[in-house]
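Forum: Protein Structure Q&A
Topic: Joint prediction for protein chains with partners

I've read a bunch of threads here and the consensus seems to be that you should model interacting components together rather than docking separate models afterwards. I'd like to see that in practice. Below is the full input, 452 residues plus whatever partners are listed. Could one of the regulars post the assembled result?
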Amino acid sequence: MTGRLPHTLRSDARDNRELILDAARAVFAAEGLNAPMREVARRAGVGPATLYRHFPTKEALAAEAFREQMGACLTIAEEGLADPDPWRGFRLVIERICELHAHDRGFTTAFMTAFPNAMDFAAVREETLRTIAELARRAKDAGALRPDFVLDDLILLIMANCGIQAASPAARVAASRRFAALAIQALQASPRHAPLPPAARLAPVPPHTTVRPTRHHPGTLAGKTS
Amino acid sequence: MTGRLPHTLRSDARDNRELILDAARAVFAAEGLNAPMREVARRAGVGPATLYRHFPTKEALAAEAFREQMGACLTIAEEGLADPDPWRGFRLVIERICELHAHDRGFTTAFMTAFPNAMDFAAVREETLRTIAELARRAKDAGALRPDFVLDDLILLIMANCGIQAASPAARVAASRRFAALAIQALQASPRHAPLPPAARLAPVPPHTTVRPTRHHPGTLAGKTS
DNA sequence: ACCTAAACGGACGGGGGCGTCCGGCTAGCG
DNA sequence: CGCTAGCCGGACGCCCCCGTCCGTTTAGGT
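Posted by a regular:
Agreed with the consensus. Here's the joint model:
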């Protein structure tokens, strides 16, 4: 719905739009959401003005660029829910979501912050979380998932997964895989497990997660950084 | 050793040095290592030149500002090692290190990156890791820590802990506490645990990986400003 | 009280990212 | 084939941050 653009769009404009989206995906994946818009434009081989005309804000660009991954996220959750064994489904969800997030740096923060202006973005996010919540309920009922698991723990793990850095993308994915395995074993129900400290409300998170806002200069426009 | 400054330092210079260090600790804790040097200077109530004269590079400033925490880190490791029960010592180390890192945003990245130029910084880091490695060995021998644990897993967890964000510092600490508890249970030796995927070499990480500056744009990613 | 060396901080030039304007180009219709 | 509306991208002004220079202030010894 968002992109109900009239196909009365001139052909070159159409082409550029795709070029920009491809470039954005590549740049955001490699450098994160805080990458300069300029960089995306350069990579797409267009001028900055063209980029800004197509996507007036970075938020709009990111929302459009990550629409696919957002959908993938939901698909993963649904596939997990479809698994006859809820615990296996749950594990799969953890593993695949971690991998997805390890692949590009930008998507995680996009997912976590869930820009308020990109409505359907947040909607898919909520739908994904709701699906996983249902899956978690079943896994608990099956006695496989620890009963004190809450949805915020999932957010916690995704955030944590996002903190993992490495020299190469490959190393990051590998590390992320190991992390997911550890997380799963921590979430597995077990009589040996001591009770956990209380969960903290986490999401959604103010953007400074990635971006540093404060520049207390009275009067001037606020500055932000990441 | 590092700070063998002649106490033939003028009194105002001495005072300013302390003011700067206090400001740096506060700013780095609140905003992270990427905070502008200017901000530290403002907070300390000195001019930029003064700051640069005392600490020619941000690295030098951070190394000095975090010396205390760095020492605390090592102390934690040593106390863990001193515990007669190695597994309890290990758990304590995890919990306390996570808490320490949750408290200020800057220290984690400082610890992870371990600036190559700040020699003794890296030295303490290595010493800390070595101590924990020994503790881990004992905990494994006691049959409490899973045998496939490697030191990189600790790095992994610290990095992950660093990814945790929340609205308030208090919430972050709470989340971090829960995370630590989960991590400990994942690392606990258990016959139920499946083998883990291979560990990946992680540290140290180039500093720019962590964050990158961006500017604020009204109505877009920036959630709030003062 | 004075004098000097040391320390201070305001100010400067450079660099980079941001968002926008405008003159030139081209797609695509008549 | 020619025209026009729509699109493009170079260039601009803005702001913030960085690191350094230099005229001014001040500590502290005589």
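Chain B touches chain A through 62 residues (CB under 8 Å).
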